[in-house]
Amino acid sequence: MTVAEFGSFAELVLTRSDERGDGDAFLFLADGVKGKEPERLSYLGLDRTARDIASWLQERGLAGRQVLLLFPSGLDFVKAFVGCLYAGAVAVPAPLPSEQGQHFRRVSGIVRDARVGAVLTLAEHAPEVEAWLKAEGFSDVACLATDQGAVGDADAWRDPGLSPKDLAFLQYTSGSTSEPKGVMVTHGNLLANEAAIARSTGNTSESMVGGWLPFYHDMGLMGHVLQPLWLGTTGVLIPPVSFLRRPVRWLELVSEYGVNASAGPNFSFDLCVRRITDAQLEGLDLSSWRTACNGAEPVRAETVKAFTERFGPYGFRPEAMFPCYGMAETTLLVTGIPRNRAALLREVDAAGLERGVVEGPYLGALRRTLVSSGVARAEDFEVRIVDPETLVECAEGKVGEIWVRGASVSSGYWERPEVNAEIFGARIVDQEDLGTWLRTGDMGVLGDGELFVTGRLKEMVLINGRNIYPYDVESAVRALNPAIGTGAVFAVDTGGQEHLVVIHEIRAAAAGADLKTVTAEVQQHVGREFAVPVGNVLFVRPGTVRKTTSGKTQRTLMRKLFLEGAVGALHSVLDPAVAALVEAGAQAAQADGPAPAEVG
Amino acid sequence: MSVPATDPTANTEPTAESLSSWLADRIALYLQRSPSEIQPTVPLAEYGLDSVAALSLCGDIEEDFDLVLEPTVAWDYPTIEALAGHLVEELQSMEGGSR
Predict the structure, then answer these.
(1) Could you tell me which residues are beta bridge partners of residue A393?
(2) Most buried among A111, A196, A561, B11, using CB within 10 Å?
(3) CA distance B81 to chain A (A)
(4) Which domains can be identified in chain B, with CATH numbers?
(5) Which range is least confidently modeled, A97-106, A150-159, A543-552?
(6) A437 — alpha (psi -120 to 50), left (phi > 0) or beta?
């Protein structure tokens, strides 16, 4: 099975439906796993519905246009997605706003940016979608409910004759709340990355694939929906909410259906360790799980160890844990650990890592544990570590920005030529003739061909020539006092000098000391452990530190709010130069218009 | 984790007190705190309750009491005291309905 066999993912699905016919393409369990009968979608059923939806889109001239998919978790999403591919339209998956209690306004940014021509949804959501489109003035955007029987004429469908260069979908990444950016994924990218995923995970047409991830997220879409189709196997799916309510359902799914490959971000493995009881585990058999992809957020050594220990007695093998690295900009997967080997944890000298060098660990010195994200396969990707300032390739063992190239790498964000030239068209100094690379914005280091991700470039703080990773400082501060909660650590520049700013939530009444004393402890501890001056500490009320809906701390947003004087503190100490900067920022923000709502 | 004050499988009616204790145990687990830190009248948001923890709570209520609730319940009844009171009412009306 090679990529060259297919000109497009649409062609691949057509071929699979010929091969598999009445065989199950997907099983979906909306509410629980054990003792429940799944909803089934055969390859032929998928093909038939996709032709019907595609004919409706073609009839309305939407081939080549962007089509927004607003669906709750379920098989109707899959039908609509494949329908778009069959029509030669560009699918734009997004979360159904009412499902997460978010306002439709958030999706409006995507409709505008992608210049969406139609919205596909379910009949039960069509009235609210139509009302929203009308209210936002999207009068030329059609809305279709795809779950009410035939919507078009399947026999009138015409094969759009797509090539690998044609766009398949736009992936709007989850962090882009304020300024949505859609990664352009072509049919060629899609086919290349599905092949890369199969090679890296060892998945075959015999593999059972599935899990609980949302379909509008790159990991869920590429890993759990399109991978089974690419393989010609069966995908078995449950909604995210079902998993979050009862995490054991993920493991029940693996056990009941003999799932071989299932993915989740680090937090979901953590959730299993913390919430699943012995009673719930009774009778579960996880021995079918060959590849437990752990990616999409930093892979934590503690989680890898705890999950493997907790579920080992139920058949989970250490070598099943599959730390991996990837992003929407590379369609999905870049690296994963070699199969039949357990996760590789590496202790390194903490001070060395701050200087951007992987060395040690040394006796008696502080250490950090890095988790290997594995290797890139030569036929799929090239990975280099490059100094983000000089753009010169780093020597092995030196931390730098992760640069990537290969057939899965997107050509860029939708209609963002300037950003694309910088991010997707980067060249390595003295190796310009190699061509262009994607700058991932992630920092990492290569050792024996294995990639260790150490943090994010933009959030990284450079003080006194040291690389300070905010997450590390935040963890250290939290460990000081149980009353200290979520934090956001970043740097501000007062003209030539970088200052560390530490903002943490605190339950003041539970701190056991006055905030002045706790502040002094933080300054002393961070100052000693990280060897940087901590002139700026703000303790704020719980709920002040902003997070994305997926729980990531929004350090960049907190930095902006701080510089606008919009972070109200219970107690703070500020370096005089920083205080002056904040004062000036607050005045500028006020002059610019209505002050942003104060947080805290 | 401390032992729950009420064994939900036992054939006794949960009271507001026993439910408060059960809730404090569960919420302490989600938020990785000690149950004694969770005060019954302090809004749960102040302890860092987020949407994932709210869903977790609904899952555990469903598991132990066979009562299906929407995750918004944790925001509508924002303290242990309020939640326990609501649960008692819901459980009583469920009992009444099944008779």
Answers:
(1) A386
(2) A196
(3) 19
(4) 16-98 (1.10.1200.10)
(5) A97-106
(6) beta
Q: Which residue of B has its CA nearest to A245?
A: B59
**C-beta of residue A293 within 8 angstroms of C-beta of residue A263:** yes
- Give a three-class secondary structure readout of A459-507: CCEEECCEEECHHHHHHHHHCCCCCEEEEEEEEEECCCCEEEEEEEEEC
Query: Which pair of structure tokens corresponds to residue B29?
Result: 């687990």
How many C-beta neighbours within 10 Å does residue A468 have?
25
For chain A, say whether B63 makes contact (Cβ under 8 Å). yes
User: Quick check: A482 and B37 CB within 8 A?
Assistant: yes
Query: Is residue B58 exposed (0-12), middle (13-18) or buried (19+ Cβ within 10 Å)?
Result: buried
Give me the percent of chain A exceeding a pLDDT of 90.
71
Best A31, A242, A244 member to test B by mutation, with max B CBs in 10 Å, is: A244
Phi, psi of A116 (to 5 degrees): -70, 140
ipTM here: 0.75
Task: Please confirm whether the linkage preceding A361 is cis (ω < 30° from 0).
Answer: yes
Q: Which residues pair with A209 in a beta bridge?
A: A235, A261
Query: Please, what is the end-to-end C-alpha distance for chain B in angstroms?
Result: 36
Q: Where does the pLDDT of residue A103 fall: very low under 50, low under 70, confident under 90, or very high at 90 and above?
A: low
C-beta of residue A409 within 8 angstroms of C-beta of residue A329: yes
| Chain A nearest-CA residue for B70 | A245
Asked if B80 contacts B38 with a C-beta cutoff of 8 angstroms, the reply is yes
Give the number of other Cβ atoms within 10 Å of residue A379's Cβ: 12
E strand or H helix at B28:
helix B16-30
Judge whether A510 and A481 are in contact, CB under 8 Å. Answer: no
What one-character DSSP code corresponds to residue A23?
A: S
Which one of B25, B27, B29, B52 would you mutate to disrupt binding with A, by most A Cβ within 10 Å of its Cβ? B52
| SS (HEC) of chain B | CCCCCCCCCCCCCCCHHHHHHHHHHHHHHHCCCCHHHCCCCCCHHHHCCCHHHHHHHHHHHHHHHCCCCCCCHHHHCCCHHHHHHHHHHHHHHHHHHHC
All structural domains of chain A? 3-242 (3.40.50.12780), 345-456 (2.30.38.10), 461-591 (3.30.300.30)
Taking CA atoms, what residue in A is nearest to B32? A274
Write out pLDDT tens, residues A6-25. 999 999 999 999 999 999 99
The first and second tokens of residue A475, run together, are 């963890």
- Cα separation, A428 vs A442, whole angstroms: 16
Q: Angle at the Cα of A412 (from A377 to A139), degrees rounded to 5?
A: 135
Q: How is the beta sheet containing A484-493 ordered, strand by strand? A: A484-493, A498-506, A536-540, A571-573
